[in-house]
Design a protein that fits this description.
alpha+beta, 52% helix
Length: 866
């Protein structure tokens, strides 16, 4: 059978020999000699090889047998040409490996479902407040949604803050999730130990209940299974641990939701019909009914928002809306376009690689022309020759795909090392079965692509011309094919280079953005729930350390997106509509904050220690807000209505504050996008926690340890966390632009290298084919410089059309990058000029070596070979 070809062929051979012996015996009986009888028998039997082929065909699975024959032949052929095989496999490994690496990220981020039960039915619900369309909701709004929804099974909410780690031991600050009782069951099938929050935890006299993460359970409580039901120290009180979450449970939320993946402690937030004007702080997640859709849920949300807007009959909430998005789609909204564009870029690299391999195969096919001609003359059909060529190329593609896994693995490691924060919270990127299938699917596709040119050449094989070895015309046709492929390489390379130039210009522009502060020589750390007295004394003690210039504190560090505080504001005389239109970021600071972070005071003064609740309520605003409210006058001394906490943390009340200073706008959320203006309030009237900032004269040894020691001297129970230089947050804000630029430069570099190799290969092949012609030209008087000019012109004859095609292609494709650009337009003329110069230089460099080789041709030796 087909899986035992040797046994089968031996059986056929034995049967043919038996027939020959019988026929030879008959011929000997007719009087022929032994030799004559043997030849007569063979003539009578016919072509034994053809008989074997016909017999195999009658046994079935002939195509599989031929396939294995072609694979064995292809393997022997590649083994006999190690140089060709190494270059082709390396080219394919780079092209396919780049696609494998980017696809593994696309698969993990865009395609793989979120690790939650019924992930396809999960939706995130945003509120529209004033000019902000992605705001959290209040407990009142959550209560109304729960009461009125028919499209959701469950709707829950979470708010993440900071707090101390429960249990005995050194103080440690962790992320604390304040959740509704049904929130965790929406995202987690069951806890690892214990139970979720329930109605019994919301009873008036119920003990304070908490749930902890698996990590806290291991490192704080030694994986003790009896911890469930026990009372542990939590802050200044005690709480009962009711459950432990699974080890692999984590949050995957949009970056602007301020819900990090590593929340360690949870406690329950009862929801009741509270004040309609209460603070909005909850991020809502809902699970749709099995038969519902996002469109129906959005329609219902519009209806609920309308009812909330008219709750008290006043027009002050006329801009309130609710927006429903798929949780997975909303998570990836910031990176989807980037990944898809990079995926398209690696597709271009693969096409360039396939073009190079096709050129190699065309040159190899010329060297094997005699072999192919002989096989055709002996009866091999063009279809059989084409199948053999396709199988050999498929083998080459599979070997390239195997090598691509090594390149892809290394590329994935590099991507993970440089990924921006927008990719940090997603699932682990690895080369799984889906990536394996994708890689070999790409290998099969690539094999088909780079087989087109040589297969087409075999299809047009002129047997008579090839047998007469008069193949000059076909050699010229092959050069035209090679030149066309090189033009395609140059066009694709130009397009990639155009996109890379725009992204590099964007990164340079991001580096030049003035963030509104000076991050160098500033160390920051966070304190959970510090009192004013502790912060004031800590400020004095840290300022006395050697090398420290100034110390201050702020509620929200610039460019740190782990939390936010923003609310409506308006000036005196604003209409009810204006009072629910504009929102600003609110920041609580200690005196000296602007000087410490290097911000610029435009007007007025900084806060002093007397700016507290016992005196006039004051505020400092940024210059953007000042120009918006008082474009023609001085903002100093004007009154502004703000949301503040004069009675304690998170007890928000509206009050009038007098503007005492104007500071230059600080980029708090992004270096490239304006989000909201800022209002600064004295710490005595603000929420907690706080981040301490320390400006030094230069590098101060062991400053972080000294800061920890100073905190411990004042209060050993206050945990210190998030110790990092302010420049770290600046680097994080630049990370996505840097990430995209690095990948684009890498892809363009590979594309340029492959294009350079392609041009070099075509010109080298052309010089080898035209050796006799060059020898004749030099024999009749052509100078070496003329020969060199001819070869260079031969190369640029294919490069220039590729540049033109690349320019037109880039005009179509570069506008797709518009959402990723900053400070540069897709059609920037400087970018095109630079790309043109780079590709011309690369093309000239690739052409130099073949041109010098042509100059060194010996006319006598060339004519002797002719």
């Amino acid at each position: 059978m087909f899986w035992r070809p040797k046994n089968r062929d031996q059986e056929i051979d034995r049967e043919l020999r038996a027939h020959l012996e019988v026929e030879a015996e008959e011929q000997r009986e007719n009087g022929l000699t032994e030799t004559e009888a043997h030849y007569a028998a063979r003539r009578a039997l016919g072509n034994s090889a053809l008989i074997m082929e016909d017999t195999r065909r009658t046994w079935g699975w002939m195509w599989l047998d031929q396939f294995f024959q072609d694979v064995r032949f292809g393997a022997r052929s590649l083994r006999k040409s190690p140089g060709f095989a190494a270059i082709a496999i390396l080219t394919l490994a780079v092209g396919i490996g780049a696609n494998t690496a980017i696809f593994s990220v696309v698969n993990a981020v865009l395609l793989r479902p979120l690790p939650y039960p019924d992930a396809n039915r999960l939706a995130i619900i945003w509120s529209g407040l004033g000019s902000t369309n992605r705001a959290p909701a209040s407990s009142f709004e959550l209560f109304q949604i729960r009461q009125r929804t028919r499209e959701f099974d469950q709707v829950g909410g979470i708010w993440v803050t900071n707090g101390a780690l429960p249990g005995e031991g050194e103080p440690e600050q962790v992320k604390v999730g304040v959740v509704t009782s049904n929130f965790l069951p929406i995202l987690c099938a069951r806890p690892a130990l214990g139970r979720f929050f329930g109605a019994e935890d919301e009873a008036p006299k119920a003990p304070w209940a908490i749930m902890i993460s698996h990590g806290v359970w291991v490192r704080r409580f030694g994986s003790n299974p009896a911890i469930v039901g026990q009372s542990v120290r939590y802050g200044k009180a005690s709480a009962v641990v009711v459950g432990v979450l699974p080890e692999n449970f984590r949050f995957i939320f949009p970056g602007d939701a301020s819900v990090p993946s590593n929340v360690d402690v949870f406690y329950n937030l009862p929801i009741s019909p509270s004040d309609p004007d209460g603070p909005a702080f909850l991020h809502l997640i809902g699970r749709l009914h099995s038969g519902s859709t996002l469109a129906r849920a959005q329609a219902e949300a519009d209806s609920i928002a309308e009812q909330i807007r008219t709750w008290d009959g006043s027009p002050t909430e006329s801009k309130f809306h609710l927006f429903v998005f798929s949780l997975q789609d909303d998570d990836v909204r910031e990176v989807r376009k980037t990944l898809l564009l990079l995926f398209g870029g690696v597709g271009f690299v693969l096409m360039i690689g396939c073009t190079n391999v096709a050129n190699l195969l065309m040159a190899r096919a010329t060297g094997r022309l005699h072999e192919t001609t002989v096989r055709a003359a002996l009866g091999a059909s063009r279809g059989r020759l084409m199948r053999q060529l396709l199988t050999e190329n498929l083998l080459l593609g599979c070997i390239g795909a195997s090598a691509a896994f090594g390149f892809g693995w290394a590329a994935v490691r590099a991507i993970l090392a440089s990924r921006p924060p927008s990719l940090v919270n997603f699932s682990v990127v690895n080369l799984d079965f889906i990536v394996f299938v994708f890689t070999f699917a790409v290998a099969f596709l690539a094999s088909g692509l780079f087989s087109l040119a040589p297969v087409f050449a075999v299809r047009r094989l002129d047997l008579m011309e090839s047998l007469k070895e008069a193949g000059h015309s076909t050699a010229g046709a092959r050069r035209r094919w090679n030149g066309l492929l090189v033009s395609g390489e140059v066009a694709l390379g130009f397009t990639l280079l155009a996109g890379t130039g725009l992204l590099m210009r964007t990164f340079v522009n991001v580096l030049r953005v003035d963030p509104g502060f000076r991050a160098e020589n500033v160390l920051s750390f966070q304190l959970a729930a510090p009192s004013y007295d502790l912060l004031h004394r800590l400020q004095q003690n840290l300022a006395a350390l050697p090398g420290v210039r100034s110390v201050a504190a702020v509620s929200h560090l610039p460019l740190d997106e782990t939390g936010n505080w923003y609310a409506y504001y308006w000036k005196e005389g604003a209409s009810l509509e204006q009072q629910k239109s504009d929102m600003a970021d609110h920041r609580s600071i200690l005196p000296g904050y602007f000087n410490t972070v290097g911000a610029t005071m435009v007007q007025g003064r900084d806060f002093t220690e007397t700016d507290d609740v016992a005196h006039q309520h004051v505020a400092i605003i940024d210059d953007l807000l000042a120009r918006q409210l008082w474009p023609d006058g001085d903002a100093i001394g004007k009154k502004l209505n703000v949301s503040d906490t004069p009675k304690g943390p998170y007890q928000f009340e509206r009050d009038w504050a007098v503007v005492i200073g104007v500071v230059r706008h600080i980029q708090c959320h992004s270096l490239t996008v304006f989000v909201r203006p800022q209002i600064y309030l004295p710490f005595q009237l603000a929420p907690r926690p706080m981040s301490v900032v320390i400006r030094t004269e230069g590098i101060v040894p062991n400053l972080a340890e000294s800061a920890r020691a100073q905190v411990a001297l004042l209060n050993k129970t206050v945990p210190v966390s998030r110790i990092a230089p302010l420049s770290y947050y600046l680097a994080q804000a630049r990370s996505q632009s840097r990430f995209v630029s690095i990948l684009a430069v890498s892809l363009s570099s590979i594309a340029l290298l492959l294009a350079c190799i392609g041009i070099y290969g075509v010109l080298s092949y052309s010089v080898a084919q035209r050796t006799s012609e060059i020898g004749i030209r030099m024999a009749i008087g052509a100078r070496r410089v003329d020969v060199m000019s001819m070869v260079l012109a031969d190369g640029f004859k294919f490069v220039l059309p590729g540049l033109a095609a690349g320019f037109l292609l880039s005009l179509v494709l570069t506008p797709l990058l518009a959402g990723l650009l900053f400070g540069v337009k897709p059609g920037d003329s400087t970018n095109y000029v630079v790309n043109l110069v780079v590709l011309l230089l690369v093309s000239a460099l690739a052409s130099i070596i073949p041109a010098r080789r042509a100059m060194e041709v010996d006319p006598l030796l060339a004519l002797r070979h002719e």
